[in-house]
Amino acid sequence: MSENAQDLSKQGTPAADRQIGQTENYRTTDHKRAHFTRSDPPIPAARNNLEVRSVLPEILDRLSPFSTAAQASRRDLGIINGLLGSRAWFADVLLHQHQAGEAVIEIGSGTGELGRALSPIAPGLAGLDLVCRPVDWPRGSRWFETDVLRFTGWKDYPVVVANLFFHHFGQADLASLGAQLSAHTRVIIASDPVRSRRSQALFSILCPLIRAHPVTRHDGRVSIAAGFRHEELARLLQLDPAVWRWRVKASWLGAARFVAVKRR
Length: 264
Hints:
By secondary structure, the protein is α/β, with parallel strands linked by helices. The chain has a domain of about 150 residues: Vaccinia Virus protein VP39 (Rossmann fold, 3-Layer(aba) Sandwich), CATH 3.40.50. Helix content is about 35%, strand content about 15%. It has nine helices and nine strands. The strands form two sheets. A seven-stranded mixed beta sheet has the order 5-4-3-6-7-9-8. Strands 1-2 form a two-stranded antiparallel ribbon. A hairpin with a 4-residue loop joins β8 and β9. The termini are far apart. The relative contact order is 0.15.
């Protein structure tokens, strides 16, 4: 049993959640519960070597959004995003980069918290995620329940917003996404983890302070190991510097802020 599984089994969670935690292998087959199979290989732990990106599965991505563990982990993510100041940062950048009449889409929208916060700046902001439309998603705003790699509506959205999203993908998938963005998008606004030991250390300090769920503790380490340094995201998206100009800034708390705008 892994360390995360041991932590999970110590908590007063329902039996189904404890059973899932003991394998650290989540498989969502419907929107009501998460199943697991003991024959499947366990999810590996994040690597300690941060010199090279390590893209591994995250438990939350394989949980039913209605499971106790998923709800607890999303609560943790809300706290972490608040500490990072992500909502204010996205709002400020969008306010300066969004042009009147431009449609905006947030990819990897999750529970829709960021999209709802940004909708006053970009009315009609659309959301895209594998999970179903949140019940409190703004009326009149579109929601695409689909895999981003299979999405075909890029031409309708010149502005793309992504929070804690791009780090989920490996080199080939990022290149594929970059090709679609380069063909149809004018602005990309993204925030992902900075891949560094400092980020790992700060995350380790934060987890006990917010009483983070074991899923969050596991996925946070995996996310940081898959994060970006310097101009890696632009390179992995294969953005052409003759076509795009971009800026990258690492926040003190470990957020890799990325803004790319097409040259006129």
